[in-house]
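User: Design a sequence. Structure:
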């Protein structure tokens, strides 16, 4: 009964999105600097503004939509168009961001009926099932240090997922999502310390635009809540 759900369809689609998102991220991380992939990943919050308005019926003002467009300008800086085309890895990273935004919408819907345990279990089972075949075909026995890193990655992933789900349970989608910008600091630090990656000026400018636009979205959210305290918690008032 603990793992019972009345919305198996949403869990199915969320699991598929999770598998696709993981593959997009893994590919992007092998081709691009950590800071670039992380900054592009923040664009999911911009995609979320649009999707939340369409699928969650959260009100999206022209002001918020305009700020979102500015954020996408920052994405253009980072992916650095070359003769009208994007690098393949940048495209994949951007696709992953859009999939992440869609998954956030589903998480927001599922928090209304399902527990954190249910929402963490089904995607994990689906990812395990889907990846078991390629894992079997290409398996290489990890060393003990690699096993330790895998265990640490699994623990961090599960902890992060729980925090994300709990955040969406307590707050509105467009208000909760931008709280993860500290990841850019960690990604830049790790990229520099372990891989010698130094973000170039264009990447820094793009990151500032993306993060700045999303922080401004938070300001709009809080201002709207302050001006309209009687609004229901599941509707944006900005």
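Assistant: Done.
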């Amino acid at each position: 009964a603990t793992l019972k759900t009345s919305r198996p369809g949403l869990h199915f689609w969320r699991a598929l999105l999770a598998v696709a998102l993981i593959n997009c991220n893994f590919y992007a991380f092998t081709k691009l600097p950590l800071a670039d992939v992380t900054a592009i990943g923040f664009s999911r919050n911009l995609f979320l503004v649009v999707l939340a308005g369409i699928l969650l019926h959260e009100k999206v003002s022209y002001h918020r939509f305009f700020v979102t467009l500015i954020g996408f300008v920052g994405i253009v800086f980072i992916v650095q168009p070359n003769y009208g085309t994007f690098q393949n890895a940048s495209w994949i990273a951007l696709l992953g961001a859009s999939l992440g935004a869609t998954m956030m919408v589903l998480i927001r819907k599922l928090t209304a009926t399902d527990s954190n345990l249910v929402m963490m279990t089904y995607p994990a089972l689906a990812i395990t099932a889907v990846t078991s075949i390629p894992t079997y075909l290409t398996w290489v026995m990890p060393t003990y240090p690699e096993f330790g890193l895998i265990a640490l990655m699994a623990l961090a992933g599960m902890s992060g997922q729980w925090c994300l789900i709990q955040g969406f349970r307590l707050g509105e989608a467009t208000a909760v999502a931008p709280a993860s910008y500290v990841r850019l600091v960690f990604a830049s630090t790790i990229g520099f310390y372990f891989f010698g990656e130094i973000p170039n000026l264009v990447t820094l400018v793009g990151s500032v635009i993306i993060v700045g636009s999303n922080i401004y979205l938070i300001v709009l959210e809080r201002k709207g809540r302050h001006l309209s305290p009687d609004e229901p918690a599941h509707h944006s008032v900005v």
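The chain has ten helices and no strands. The radius of gyration is 19 Å.
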